[in-house]
């Protein structure tokens, strides 16, 4: 049996109709209507009023006439239809628009993810947000990198540590590549979160006070690193080479799980000795 390619315009039309029809008019502060309702849910003119668009626009959207609503209109429709986060993202995808981050960046670890970080031992693991703020870590990661718990919260940031911490500055064997890739990832995050003032302030601080960051930031490299390799020059255990993997949980897409694995037998032995102390 052949399946047809999804038509985003028609799927958008059907999705809007079904979400409008499932709503209870009594849940909305709308003027009372005397005439009886012949269809379930809200009327098109009521959705139009809630979203701040014309009724004709809603009609054309629901009839699949090829309209491509702007991000502002999609956001207004999502609010009017009271879409949960997953359906809101789906609506943005159908409209071929990037959804906005309405909740802001995570500043604390989601409890299930914090437990997962601990359960990943003996693999070094940590949890970060898009700013590179370190939200949770296990004992192995703290022994490999730095005692995060002893740092004030503003310094629990991977980029800050790499630039400013006296021990971490010379931590990586191939420092130029590591920091260049980190800055390129940070630039991608900055473009994806233009309203994150704290991230903008962080970048301004780095640009103002660190010549290396200012030089590499001006090159405008863009790269999203999902996996890679680092060789760490540990003061107690010697050189430890690791492969890293960055995973984004479906339930908490604003948080990133980072897992290290030894890249060779010598590194595994060094990591075992370090963590056994």
Explained architecture:
There is one protein chain. This protein is of the alpha+beta class and 277 residues long. It folds into two domains: 8-94, 434 Repressor (Amino-terminal Domain) (Orthogonal Bundle); 111-276, Beta-Lactamase (2-Layer Sandwich), CATH 3.30.450. 44% of the residues lie in helices and 13% in strands. It is built from twelve helices and five strands. Helix 2 (44-51) crosses helix 4 (71-80). It comes from Streptomyces violascens. This is Transcriptional regulator. InterPro entries: Cro/C1-type_HTH (IPR001387), Lambda_DNA-bd_dom_sf (IPR010982), MLTR_LBD (IPR041413). Residues 34-88 form the HTH cro/C1-type domain.
Give a quick summary of the entry.
With 277 residues, the chain is α+β, with helices and mostly antiparallel strands.
Evaluate the radius of gyration.
25 Å
Instruction: Kindly report how far apart the N and C termini lie.
Output: 61 Å
Q: Name the shape in a single word.
A: elongated
Structure summary, number of beta strands: 5
Strand numbers in spatial order across the main sheet: 2-1-5-4-3
CATH class group of the largest domain:
Alpha Beta
Overall pLDDT, averaged? 88
Structural class by SSE content: alpha+beta
**Order of helical and strand elements:** HHHHHHEEHHHHHEEEH
Instruction: Kindly state the percentage of residues in helix.
Output: 40-55%
Protein name: Transcriptional regulator
Organism: Streptomyces violascens
Domain HTH cro/C1-type: 34-88
Pfam family, one: HTH_31
């Amino acid at each position: 049996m052949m399946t047809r390619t999804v038509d985003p315009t028609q799927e958008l039309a059907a999705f809007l109709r079904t979400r409008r029809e499932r709503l209870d008019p009594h849940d909305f502060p709308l003027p009372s209507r005397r005439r009886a309702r012949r269809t379930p849910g809200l009327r098109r003119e009521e959705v139009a009023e809630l979203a701040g668009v014309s009724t004709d626009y809603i009609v054309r959207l629901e009839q699949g006439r090829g309209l491509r609503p702007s991000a502002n209109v999609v956001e207004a429709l999502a609010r009017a239809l009271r879409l949960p986060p997953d359906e809101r993202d789906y609506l943005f995808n159908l409209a071929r628009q990037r959804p906005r981050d309405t909740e802001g960046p995570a500043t604390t670890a989601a409890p299930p993810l914090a437990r997962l970080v601990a359960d990943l031992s003996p693999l070094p693991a940590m949890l970060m947000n898009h700013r590179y703020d370190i939200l949770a870590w296990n004992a192995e990661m703290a022994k490999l990198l730095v005692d995060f718990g002893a740092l004030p919260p503003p310094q629990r940031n991977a980029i800050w540590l790499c630039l400013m911490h006296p021990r971490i500055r010379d931590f990586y064997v191939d420092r130029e590549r590591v920091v260049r890739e980190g800055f390129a990832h940070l630039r991608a995050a900055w473009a994806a979160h233009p309203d994150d003032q704290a991230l903008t302030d962080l970048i301004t601080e780095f640009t103002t006070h660190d010549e290396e960051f200012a030089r590499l930031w001006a090159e405008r490299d863009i790269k999203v690193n999902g996996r890679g390799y680092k060789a760490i020059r540990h003061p107690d255990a010697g050189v430890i080479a690791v492969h890293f993997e960055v995973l984004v949980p479906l339930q908490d897409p604003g948080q990133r799980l980072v897992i290290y694995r030894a890249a060779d037998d010598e590194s595994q032995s060094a990591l075992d000795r370090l963590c056994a102390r």
